Every structure is written in C-alpha cells, then in structure tokens.
Amino acid sequence: ITAGPTREAIDPVRYLSNHSSGKMGYALASACAAAGADVSLISGPVGLQAPERVTLHRVTSAEEMCAAALSLADDADCFIGAAAVADYRPAAVSGEKIKKQNGRGLSLDLVENPDIVATVAQLPNRPRIVAGFAAETHDLLSHARTKRLRKGLDMVIANDISAPETTFGSDQNAVHLITAEKETRLALASKYVIAEHIVTALATRLSE
Ligand code: C5P
Predict the structure, then answer these.
(1) Whose CA is nearest to atom 2 of ligand 1?
(2) How far is the CA of 108 from the centre of ligand 1 (A)?
(3) Which of 12, 56, 66, 196 is the most exposed place for a label (fewest CB within 10 A)?
(4) What is the per-residue pLDDT across 25-56, written as a single tens digit (0 to 9) for each?
(5) Ligand 1, from 78, 85, 161: best to mutate by most atoms within 8 Å of Cβ?
(6) What pTM value is reported for the model?
(7) Given this model, what pLDDT does residue 88 score?
(8) Tens digit of each residue's pLDDT (9 = 90 or more) over 137-177
(9) In the prediction, which pLDDT does 115 show?
C-alpha cells in the first residue's frame, strides 16, 4: 500500500507537495492487517503513527516511493496505490538555497514522475489485484472509469474531493468502488469503515 504525499525537492530547504494526509492509506493498512494480511505500507511524509502489525517503509520523493513499490510488489497478492504522488518534480535540484531574483520572476523546469500504480500493474509478474484511487473535483465516475482502463487497474476507488466532508485531511470519506463488472457506492463513513469495505471487496476478488 502506498500512502500520503510525496515531496519533490527544489533546493535544500524547499519542495513541491500536496495536501494528502495519508489517513485513507493508513486506514487501509490497518484494515488489511486486521483481516490477516501481511502488510507493507510505503508512506510519504505524514504525521501519523505506524499502524499495528504493519511494516512501514518511509520515503520522501516519488522516485523513492516507486523504487520501494517495485521491490515490494514482486511477491504481493495485492497492491493498493493510495498515495497522492506528485505528478512532476523539478528537472534539477539546486545544491544551494535559491535566492530571490531582485524582482524578476523565477521559473522551475518540471519533469514527469513515474506513475507508480500503472508501472506495478504492467509488471510481468504483477500482483493479482492492483487497485488505485481517483480523487476528482468533477465528473467523478467518468474520470475514474477512464483512469481504471488507462492504468490497467482491477479496481478504482473514486473519491469526490470537492465536498468538504470528503476532501484531503478529512477523517471521513464517501467513495465508489469501480471494477470492470460493477460499481458500488459506499456512503459517508469513517475512513476506517470505508477501508474495511474496500478490503472485503478486494478479498472477495482474491478468493474468486
Ligand atoms: O492520475 P491520478 O494521479 O489521478 O491517479 C491516482 C492514482 O494513481 C492513485 O492510486 C495514485 O496513488 C496513483 N498514482 C501513482 N503514481 C503517480 C500518480 C498517481 O501511483 N505518479
């Protein structure tokens, strides 16, 4: 399971990142462990305690998260990408603190990060189930369906982040579980309760 944001260094004191709290990924890790799974949680920087009975791998950047995911996905039955991975990173990291430009603007050149969940889904010996999230502000279901196909995922968990009760940092969530066969709506509940439903759905697929 990947969780939390990634941080992409600009210089020794600055980075690009996002508002991910990691709560959904950590709740999933707890619920998977409670269901008896052997869980590796690859986490970006968050202010959360490691869940019990979960092996925590701390990373900072998307490239570090990708390397950890590729080494751990090898013998996993299931991979869940719950991290809010930065899509871009600075093309070059300045070794020194960048100084103000005397009133002139500053441009950063960005390059695309690897898509971790899509890379895992394309591995020759991929985990039997690869699931990811789609956090959207509009056209939730159509974006999520497209994302599932484009990334080669078995399940997409679609999350409306335009509503205050289900946005980044909230303790609650309301999602749609989207597979090739069906779409299920999970009404507003704690992230742990949502995680338990997701784990049940994944376990059912694994046993099929
Ligand atoms: O394309 P988008 O970022 O909306 O896709 C979200 C899903 O893809 C999440 O499951 C997220 O963890 C995963 N992702 C990833 N690597 C990226 C970008 C997103 O694994 N570089």
Answers:
(1) 134
(2) 22
(3) 12
(4) 999 999 999 999 999 999 999 999 999 999 99
(5) 85
(6) 0.96
(7) 98
(8) 899 999 999 999 999 999 999 998 888 888 888 899 999 99
(9) 98
In the chain, pLDDT over 70 holds for what percent of residues?
A: 100
- Residues annotated as catalytic are 18
Average pLDDT in the chain: 96
Is the sign of the CA dihedral 108, 109, 115, 116 positive or negative?
negative
Q: Phi and psi dihedrals of 18, rounded to 5?
A: -150, 180
Tokens at residue 194, please?
């949502």
Question: 183, 159 in Cβ contact below 8 A?
Answer: no
Going from the Cα of 101 to the center of ligand 1, the distance in angstroms, rounded, reads: 34
Which residues is 178 bridged to in the sheet? 156, 183
Residues framing ligand 1 (Cβ under 6 A): 2, 62, 81-83, 85, 87, 113, 115-117, 132-134, 147
Atom of ligand 1 nearest to the CA of 119: 20
Query: What is the distance of C-alpha 163 from the center of its chain?
Result: 19
What are the tokens at 140? 């939730």
